[in-house]
């Protein structure tokens, strides 16, 4: 496992063997190899959790109470299935917030640095404020059991740039993936309408236990016959009233509401109310197309 500059000057962090040098999360005691014929623990060096259910919003693991913000900035984890719009959300948040708030970004991909390249090309942030982690295996492991590389990248960025917030984009995964609370102070889970309006009710820890659920690509709802009312109702049920925001990340719709929500939590956690004030007067929400609006509150 080694860091940086395997690819010229690109800050590219690569995962090697999962068998050494990893910091394990405090929830390891809940992990065990599941009872399928194949053992994941031997194939890729970590065990998979067997979950009895998706878990509940109100009894989810809360953020760690910590004060070491100067060692590691407030960390926002963005997870969700492949292609749901995580990178589009990272870009949109950077565009919306970076004038007022100091940011840094870590991207995860299994074998490439494509998301990092996309963000560099689109000037999400100055290149040096963004790092790519190549997870080399299950993306969910890199944000849960074996998060050392991501943790290291967040700490390095904090040390170099003292950002108010570091955004970590998980590699796209399935509905069973979720961030470790050791890594993420705030968890956003992004799904999209293109998979159909059934997705929220299928559950999974990202849907039920994320601090904020984003339902992206509402512009495609009609084309795929997804009923946003159903998604809204079922997301609300699955999340016990926890916040959900409909969005079109690619078109900035819903992004100001997402940004304000994250900033507010960050301001409270870090005890810096000025953070939230800085964005209050920022550009208002663009005119939302059908269905692109915050639902069941933003808190
Ligand atoms: N129509 C529409 N397309 C979108 C929207 N947001 C993102 N997309 C498109 O969806 C595709 C996937 O978006 P990404 O942001 O790369 O998704 P991702 O979740 O980061 O994907 P992985 O990192 O590969 O898992 C891209 O072609 C985006 O342009 C949206 O609001 N509406
Ligand atoms: Mg991506």
Please describe the structure with a list of short key phrases separated by commas or semicolons:
alpha/beta, GTPase activity, CobW/HypB/UreG_nucleotide-bd, 299 residues, GTP binding, binds magnesium ion, 14% strand, Rossmann fold, nine-stranded mixed sheet, binds guanosine-5'-triphosphate, UreG, disordered N terminus, 10 helices, 9 strands
Your description of this structure?
This protein is α/β, with parallel strands linked by helices. It has a domain of 209 residues: P-loop containing nucleotide triphosphate hydrolases (Rossmann fold, 3-Layer(aba) Sandwich). Helix content is 29%, strand content 14%. It is built from ten helices and nine strands. Strands 1-4-3-5-2-6-7-8-9 form a nine-stranded mixed sheet, sandwiched between helices. β3, α3 and β4 form a beta-alpha-beta unit. α2 packs across α9 and α9 runs antiparallel to α10. The termini are far apart. The N terminus and C terminus are likely disordered. It binds guanosine-5'-triphosphate and magnesium ion. The site of guanosine-5'-triphosphate has 18 residues, from α2.
